[in-house]
Amino acid sequence: QVQLAESGGGFVQAGGSLRLSCKASRWITSTFNSRTLGWYRQAPGKERELVATVSAVRTGARTNYADSVKGRFSISRDNSRKTVYLQMNSRQPEETAVYYCAADRDGTSVEPNDFWGQGTQVTVSG
Fold it and tell me: Would you tell me how many other CB atoms lie within 10 Å of the CB of residue 65?
């Protein structure tokens, strides 16, 4: 069973930037490469929402974003490190949330949700 471990959360001022990392363990590199990866967030009192995804390597590692973060967030994958990143710029206070990374089982999901990390808290102060 894969383990996903997020890091990089913390406090950031509105307008600032933060980069989250999520490292997958217990997967060999080829398995990691074959999976769709994503970042979600859940703000207090709200449902979890999909923020960004990056597809499997064989499909070109295509990225997709929620409309609310397009142009400000960037998802990327470093396959040699088995890590997926979320670069977040121009943070807004309403984006305070717990951020989760996720992966799917076979690289075919539009919304990967088979495996989850524990989450990392991001607080944006206004």
Answer: 17
Q: Helix H segments across 1-126? A: 29-33
Measured CA to CA, the distance from residue 42 to residue 80 in angstroms comes to 29
Cβ pair 5, 103 in contact under 8 A: no
Cβ–Cβ < 8 Å for 35, 107: yes
The two structure tokens encoding residue 23: 């490292």
Is residue 77 within 8 A of residue 84, CB to CB? The reply is yes
- Tokens matching residue 6: 């997020």
Are 13 and 95 in contact by the 8 Å Cβ rule? The answer is: no
SS3 95: helix
Distance separating alpha carbons of residues 111 and 88, to the nearest angstrom: 20
Q: What is the pLDDT of residues 21-75, one digit of tens each?
A: 999 999 999 999 999 999 999 999 999 999 999 999 999 999 999 999 999 999 9
Closest CA to 118 of 11, 43, 22: 22
Say how far apart CA 6 and CA 102 lie, in whole Å.
10
Token pair, residue 31, equals 């398995």
